[in-house]
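Re-running the complex after MR caught last week's input typo. The corrected sequence lines follow. Everything else is unchanged.
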Amino acid sequence: MEKVLEVQDLTVKIGEKNIISSINLTAYKGRVLGIIGESGSGKTMLCHAIMQSLPASAQITQGQIIYQQENLLNVSATKLRTYRGRHLSMIMQNPSIAFDRIQTIESHFRESLKAHFVMTKNEMRQIALDAMDKVNLPNPQQLLHYYPFQLSGGMLQRMMIALSLAIQASVYIADEPTTALDTVNQKQVLTLFHRIRSETEAAIILVTHDIGVIAELADDVAVMYQGEIIEHTNVYDFFDAPQHPYTKKLLQSRILF
Amino acid sequence: MSLLHKERANVKRLFSLTILLIIGLLGLFAPILMSHDPLAVDISKKFLGPTWDYPLGTDHLGRCVFSRLLLGIRYSLGSALVIQIVAILLAILLGAFVALKRGMTDYVFIRICDILLAFPTLVLAFGLLGLLGPSLKNVFIALVFTQFIYYSRLIRSLFIGMNEKGFIQAAKISGTSGIKLIIRHYIPNLLPPIVTIVVLDIGKIILEIAGFSFIGLGVQAPIPEWGMMVSEGKQYIRQHPELMLYPGLAIVFVVLLLNYLASSFKKLDQ
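Corrected-run output:
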């Protein structure tokens, strides 16, 4: 297993309060790392800390984020910009606010592609169409000229995944990608992640509070509770032999049919 | 907002824009449209009533009032427009810089703004004009400065409000650079409030320029600025009140139209 991204001893504080306390994580090539925890356990903050897009009030006080033998916390702003999007791609929690409502879908694609590659308009359009095709969006040609508010939540979520696919990042950080969706769309998005993993060999960090999603996709599981990772195992041990009492409680709390 | 409301705002906007555009064109082509040289003094023709030759009569020095009013568009509306544009552009530069930088820079900026904004705009401009001496150029500098402080603070807070928006974060984490963020996302999204306030304040600036000219701190004597014309006419208010009335009405009319236009933008924004 090849390491792609390594988080070591990461601590994030807001004021004096620890939001995330000394977290260690490793994402491997072609594997899905599921991070599960209740609301407020610091999952989203962890994603933002890795992307270094934390709100102004939160500060990373210690730790390292290692990608390609470099500590992302120490690289210059310009260098960080080349990593963001190009190598590390984040799929945000709420698709309806992640798009600029006065820009068309095409200009969203263009902006992301232009930030990292030198390309002609036609090349960019082709890449956008391919990416949309991959995520099963109907009528990609037409969708290019749409504005975000003309699409449904599920379509926007898939559009966001298409945007990160277009760039072919090596780490995808998906922050609750299925939470805002209905079951049909959830299923589609999960299938999509399966395909990303098998086709691109990227590492996927999947943040969720849905045990079903973990069962469906994850290879490794980290359980987060109040800003700490209390258990970090593979998916089989997570379901069959949970160690920590909180993990046991979490598994019992799932709704059984 | 109902469709009727929107339609009404559209009509309002179209109406005031058209008339303002015509006034602007009149100012632009003033040299062709003027019947006389607005600066030519001819004492033998002073205080003439309206005739075909002098549509609005002449003033105390025998100058054509109509021609002076036309050329005055440039000095009143024209310079107010330029002042506003220069001020808002500078404000966007500084406000955006401070809003994205935050930290100590932001803190110092806000304190300086607080100190300067503690004085009313007019007092601040008076002070500057007192230092620089009265002239059109200095009125320009003083007003750009006072507007600029006010606007850069406004722009800063508008930008900070956008900072935490989802799509700004999304753009940031997909690698968009700072300048592109500002040009593609911040400014287009903030255009409605910015345009509204800039248009609304053009009227205020026209009044301020006229006010400065009236008390003798602004535009100097021969230049036909509207406030200046009111000021010159005030000595003859008993015999020839129309000399104050014409430029005064022109100011009222233009300022009203600008307010009308701005309020239509506001309605559209809701």
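None of the earlier attempt is carried over here. Chain B has one domain: 3-269. Residues 65-101 of chain B form the longest helix (37 residues).
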